[in-house]
Design goal:
single chain; alpha+beta; 2-methylcitrate dehydratase PrpD; 60s Ribosomal Protein L30, Chain: A; 8 strands
Length: 460
């Protein structure tokens, strides 16, 4: 047996052996249906539907379905499309640590492989299996994110989607320890995405399909391992040519924490607001202020946020597209102060044509509150605080502070009715079997609903 880098060895051991408990599987079920909701809502937008009609995908032979559509394609392209749909509106779950990301992105690979393996290899799973795969993928992506900052090296977090999807794909394909380690090593060897498409002046829609692309690559690497006996044991640690020396500089990849279900148990849901998560509490604070303030009364706005909120989503100058706006905390606060709401249509060109938004952005200051940053990085708290302070022209000062967003574990019970409503609302324009899917969402018995019955109902 080859001696793989310790990080790869640890990831393989965990993926091969971990079985989640009932509580974590129930959380995964909520995450499963929330991810489907995000996909159904995304299909209301022309731009993502264009991806589903790409000629080369339509022409591809295959039997694997794509969420909410009648598209049948190969397993790799189905993973790509599922991932684009789950991620398109920036409305799926979120994980915040040294690295950020959306672990439900990995569901794209799990769904596509579940469909493929039943048809092509007569390998079947039950719902518990699928949810356990989700817990594993969440933990791999989230645990690596806790200890490593790829963004500080200019790399995008979807490197973690590729690694997690590759590991779980390998498990679903029945690979042994050696072969799974080889698959994960290939995911580290692979070219990694730059973050430039998430930042001025290059912000663009790639952020909505980048995770689908990474998940698809992870699946492809798992299949490649079945026809090519290759492995790269020291891909992370090798001098000069290894992942650390080439990409990570003075911050080599590490994974010291115990792997379990921590990430799934503490996952953040976007309940009401399709916006970058560091701004969720700012949106809620601004919406609370909305009824008390008129536009022409505002002299100045201060946003107090965590350090990542300043670094990632504080933007000055022109916002040229949807992707720019839903990752701009000043735009989000201005919109919420003016309108008292926030939804997927708040970032369109038509919405942004309201000149009052840029007027408010020009009188907005965003700064770090170090206490907020400390509470953000505290693993026992995982707060995402924001405070919005509005100074009026008459000198009055009004402010709202929100420490935990709706969707945080501290507000999980409060969130549940909203998450259920989010799912039911997402079904309204799909033409799918709303009664069956709603009943499946509500069922607490994980042995009562067949995963293949769900798959039949989420495809047209």
């Amino acid at each position: 047996m080859s001696k793989f880098d310790p990080v790869i060895h640890k990831l393989t051991n965990f993926t091969q052996t971990f079985v989640a408990d009932e509580s974590s599987l129930q959380e995964a079920k909520t995450c499963f249906f929330d991810s489907l909701a995000c996909s159904f809502l995304a299909l209301e937008h022309d731009k993502v539907r264009n991806f589903c009609s790409l000629a080369y995908i339509k022409d591809s032979s295959g039997s694997v379905g794509v969420i909410g559509t009648d598209t049948k394609t190969n397993v790799v392209d189905a993973t790509f499309l599922n991932g684009a749909l789950i991620r398109w509106l920036d409305f799926n779950d979120t994980w915040l640590a040294k690295e950020w990301g959306h672990p439900s992105d990995n569901l794209a690979a799990i769904l596509a492989l579940t469909d493929y393996l039943k048809t092509e290899r007569d390998i079947t799973f039950n719902l518990r299996d699928i949810l356990n795969f989700m817990v594993i993928a969440h933990e791999i992506q989230g645990a690596l994110a806790i200890e490593n900052s790829f963004n500080k090296e200019g790399l995008d977090h979807v490197v973690l989607v590729k690694i997690a999807s590759a590991a779980v794909a390998s498990k679903m394909l029945g690979h042994d320890h050696e072969q799974m380690s080889a698959v994960i090593s290939n995911a580290f060897v692979d070219g990694q995405s730059l973050r430039t498409y998430r930042h001025f002046p290059n912000t663009g829609a790639r952020k909505s399909w980048a995770a689908g692309d990474a998940g698809a690559r992870g699946v492809k690497l798992a299949f490649i391992s079945e026809v090519s006996d290759e492995h790269y044991p020291s891909v992370i640690s090798a001098e000069v040519w290894g992942f650390n020396d080439v990409l990570m500089g003075d911050n080599p990849v590490k994974l010291e924490r115990e792997l379990n279900s921590y990430v799934m148990d503490n996952i953040l849901y976007k309940v009401n607001f399709p916006a970058e998560f560091h701004a969720q509490t700012a949106a809620e604070a601004a919406i609370k202020l909305h009824p008390q303030i008129a536009f022409d009364e505002i002299a100045h706005i201060n946003i107090h946020t965590q350090e990542p909120g300043v670094r990632i989503i504080s933007k000055q100058g022109p916002l040229t597209n949807y992707a720019d706006r839903d990752h701009c905390i000043e735009y989000i606060v201005a919109w919420c102060l003016l309108n008292g709401n926030l939804d997927a249509n708040s970032y369109t060109d038509e919405a942004a044509s309201d000149l009052r938004i840029d007027s408010l952005r020009e009188i907005t200051s965003t700064s770090e509150n170090t206490e907020y940053t400390n509470r953000y990085y505290n693993l026992d708290e995982r707060a995402i605080p924001n405070k919005v302070t509005v100074t009026l022209k008459n000198g009055d000062v009004m402010e709202e502070e929100v420490i935990y967003p709706l969707g945080h574990r501290e507000r999980r019970e409060e969130s549940k009715p909203y998450l259920k409503q989010k799912f039911n609302n997402s079904l309204e324009n799909t033409g799918l079997d709303q009664t069956f899917l709603s009943d499946a969402y509500n069922s607490l018995d994980l042995d009562k609903v067949e995963i293949y019955d769900i798959l039949k109902k989420i495809y047209k």
